[in-house]
Amino acid sequence: MFKGQPKGLYALALANTGERFGYYTMLAIFTLFLQAKFGFSAVATSNIFAGFLALVYFLPLLGGILADKFGYGKMVVTGIIVMFAGYVALAIPASNGIDGKIAMFGALFLIALGTGLFKGNLQVMVGNLYDAPEYQSKRDAAFSLFYMAINIGSMFAPTAATKITEYFMAKAQLSYDGAIPELCHKYLAGDMSVADRLTELASQQAAFTGDLTAFANTYITELYGAYHWGFAVACVSLVLSMGIYLGFRPWFKHADVNAKQAAASGKQEAVQELTPAQTKARITALMLVFAVVIFFWMAFHQNGLTLTFFARDYTESFAEGFSRIGFNIWNLVLIVVAVYGLFAIFQSEKAKSKVIAAVVTVAAVAGVVYQYLALGDARVDVLPQTFQQFNPFFVVALTPVSMAVFGALAKAGKEPSAPRKIGIGMFIAALGFVIMAVGSLGLPTPDALAAGATVAKTSPNLLISTYLVLTFAELFLSPMGISFVSKVAPPKLKGAMMGCWFAATAIGNYLVSVIGMLWGGLPLWALWTILVALCLISALFIFSMMKRLENATK
Description:
Layout: H1 7-38, H2 42-70, H3 72-91, H4 98-129, H5 139-171, H6 180-188, H7 195-202, H8 212-247, H9 259-264, H10 276-300, H11 306-313, E1 318-319, H12 329-347, H13 351-375, E2 380-381, H14 390-411, H15 418-439, H16 446-450, H17 460-488, H18 494-517, H19 524-544, H20 546-552
Helix pairs in contact: 1-2, 1-4, 1-5, 1-8, 2-3, 2-4, 2-18, 3-4, 3-8, 4-17, 4-18, 5-8, 5-14, 5-17, 6-7, 6-8, 10-15, 10-17, 10-18, 10-19, 10-20, 12-13, 12-14, 14-17, 15-17, 15-19, 17-18
């Protein structure tokens, strides 16, 4: 799995890991922050969330165009600096009035712009490492490893956000309750109908003195203040990312060369020349793939919006049984160690290496068993954002499995092409939302719930199962899609084409808000069924174009 990869891959992957840790720490609490600080409705929150994600993934198109002209490395460094400024601005506590909103939107723009300059161009350099003949066969595996590294950062992010929130709330003698922020905003706006319910919940907080107005103001201020500290984590992670990128630059410096720079240095022969017909065929194939992935990201990134709403309003706030171990990040780390240890046992060539891998695997499994037994019959409290750690965990844990499967198929001459993998991924994504649709049968609508309807909350296992299936879809689609772009893009347009991949992702992320805007009177099962239908239609479309897509890679 790791054997034979250029060391530049690991440097670029770790630089991205640091950046993604900060980004997903912010994203884990972002929608909750918007509603807690500003009292935004689900619709307004959906629009802001989707607009921000769209900008994050659209601006790599600009970053790619600039990189094709000025260089990939220059854009990466500039991007880190701009992102840092954005996270600093977001971390500084401001009021929840108009000045606070202006500061927030300004910070979001800087984060999106910096990400646009950084994200795609770092991945282009990864692809450039594999233009060398001795590495070309390892391109798909490389992007799987790169994607795994991204998700290592993502895996720790929700826990970091949660622990920071809990720490600062506890200092104020408060604890998080997802129902309280909305009630506080309504009460302060003059809605006295919520007073009894707010009093009931407030009485369970140590800081409550009997003054409901004072409590409402204090709770909101302390909660969004804690979220601001969570955003500060991203600042630290970017410093680490910059240090890794600059410190290990000699490992990948040779990949930081665009077509213009190659020509200027007298290495024009390194740039593959394509006929106009070949260029057109490749761009057409890429655009067809981009059209499909729009709908994947529209579905997948519900994890930060409607699936988070579902976790908050329809899912038990505690876990029981074996699933409890999944809500402790260190248990997840032990499981990952056990998985990689098992693979090391079978892949190591030396007996000593096999013994070490076996010892590590047994120790990791023993650690998980010990942690489970130590829980006894106790329940484990669960916050809505915590569910977001399962997707990156599954990515990290399942990457060696997917690589082993694809590797075995490649040796047998039966490995699916990248476009075919993308189509299969869309079918799997549809299955993920089938699980949500079935699990949501009989649940009241969000509007009915807000009006006082009772709900028999679902087990956390419903969301965990959904994230598992969606992760399988992601492993078939996202790293393979990026690999496909790096391979098929015309050499002189590598930055722009990688930017177009992210622009398609941006459109999908903006369309996330469509489901958010339907969050209200529509039955939940109908919401998830819409996503099922879109994924199935997209899968059928890409398979109908498969011959053209596969011919473009030849």
